[in-house]
Fold this sequence. Notes:
By secondary structure, this protein is mainly alpha-helical. It has helices at about 5-10, 15-20, 25-35, 50-65, 75-95, 105-130, 135-165; strands spanning about 10-15, 40-45, 45-50. The termini are far apart.
Amino acid sequence: MGEVVSQERAYHWSINRIAEAIGRDRRTVARVIRDSSIPPAGTLRGNPVYRLADVVDAITARQGEATGAPDVGDMHPQDRKAWYQSENERIKLERELRNLVPAEEVQQEMSRLAKAVASSLDSLADMLERDAGLPHEAIDLVEQTTDALREQMYQAIINDDYTEAEA
């Protein structure tokens, strides 16, 4: 029969269990515990157990340190210059690889796409009347629907422009 434990003790886990739960190697979890000086919350069958919250906090703190951008204001002038030069080179590479696209180019492509969709919506009712032989009532409904879609597209573009202008 299982043992009933308090809610507090329910989150006191072994290194293996923590590693399994968060998808990390147990050695990584053990290193984080050691480097962060997390004290054991107790023992279970002679093995130390740790508060899950303490370990997760330590891991996320380490990730924040590893991925955080450096504070350029704290750098020496030569280091700051080198950092900006490396960032400029990174941006140039991103452009060459087409992972970074100029905003004007994106706007032009979106404009072409919107024009193509609007043009197709304009001719849809005529095509359905001519090729499918739909009755006049159905054509009116198609025109109302396509007009509403075009208006929604227009409003979305206007709202995006308005939001960008505010920022």
